[in-house]
Amino acid sequence: MSRNLLLGGLAALIVVVIVAVLAIRPGPKLEGPTHIVFATDWKAQAEHGGFYQALAKGYYKDAGLDVTIQQGGPGVNVPQLLATDTVQFGLGSNSFIPLNIVAANAGSKAVAAIFQKDPQVLIAHPRDDVTSIADMKGKPIMVGDATVSSFWPWLKAKYGFTDDQIRKYTFNLAPFLTDDKAIQEGYLSSEPYTIEKEGHFKPQVFLLSDNGYPGYAAFIMASDKLIADHPDIVQKFVDASIRGWVDYLYGDPSPANALIKKDNAEMTDDLIAHAIATMKEHGVVDSGDTQTLGLGAMTDARWKDFYDTMSSAGVFAKDLDVRKAYTLDFVNKGVGLDLKKELTGK
Fold it and tell me: For an engineered disulfide with 117, which of 11, 152, 209, 321 has Cβ 3.0 to 4.6 Å away?
């Protein structure tokens, strides 16, 4: 299931709900300066592996933090949890989340981007007439409701897609598997794997980020108040999480995987292994700026590119202050590069 887009579909609700809860927002619920609750955006999986590795290997503990990972699901609204100080940190699924929070004046922002590439993909059967995203122009494509107001406008602007191509994707793969002309959206480490297992063929997979889509994903989010009052805690959590991710990708991931399977019985060893291999193969976590700045890297230029692209497509207002969506204060410091060298020898 493409959890990234399902959660992105909460964007409109976020604006309404958060504005309401801010009126009665209590003070921070830090039970002592080191007790931290981190809410993820979906059930435990390899895409959260670095956080579980930081917990399992003691990176959080070494930083003086007592961290609880609170797994998400379809009914979990991470921005709302942050707005009400129910949790200290949360995982923002994609670049739309921080910008929608700015639009709602909801008082939290991204402090690190764990995914340098948003894992959204378009998937097609092996076919001679579709060998690129550009070849999909004019052809029916199954997408979820949230896609229509997220990356679909980018596809329209870049590739000339039109709304009459849209067919509804209900997160059921049967229509795709039974129609060799079908094209649909998906999540890099999810639908393609299931299609190959159930359909017994290898689909064509087109990663939007490798075709110019500029968004980050899997953000560590923190409230403005926590950032202002406890920047040391934010820095410790970001640094320990980065080290956890380096260890998960380049070391032995089994400590984290044991916790993931404990939290989510649906996770299997082969599914987790596939997700790890996919993230590494495509540079989802470690590519581009992270090579010199360290994991979690963000830049003003990338954020401006995403905002300019989406505001030009009518997704965001032209006068939105994109700088309120994130801060670079806690990243780009080369954290974890030494550990990566130790684990990989390069």
Answer: 209
Quick one: which H or E segment has residue 187? strand 183-187
Q: Percentage of the chain with pLDDT > 90?
A: 87
**For tokens 């100080």, what's the residue?**
85
| Average pLDDT value over all residues in the chain | 92
Proportion of the chain above pLDDT 70, given as a percent: 90
Q: For 62-90, write each residue's pLDDT tens digit.
A: 999 999 999 998 888 999 999 999 999 99
Instruction: Quote the CA–CA distance of 55 and 318 in Å, as a whole number.
Output: 41
**Residue 254 Cα distances to 159, 194, 248, 299, angstroms:** 42, 23, 8, 32
The residues, any chain, with a CB within 8 Å of residue 319's CB and separated by 6 or more, are: none
Contact 263, 43 (CB under 8 A): yes
DSSP E strand stretches across 292-333: none
Residue pair 314/157 in contact by the 8 Å Cβ criterion = no
* Helix or strand holding residue 166 (H, E): strand 166-168
pLDDT in the model for residue 4: 53
Determine contact, residues 188/282, Cβ cutoff 8 Å.
Answer: yes
234 close to 222: Cβ distance less than 8 angstroms? yes
- Number of Cβ atoms within 10 Å of the Cβ of 159: 15
Q: For tokens 């202050």, what's the residue?
A: 321
Q: Per residue in 10-35, pLDDT tens?
A: 444 454 455 444 444 444 444 445 89
Q: What is the sign, positive or negative, of the torsion defined by CA atoms of 228, 233, 236, 241?
A: negative
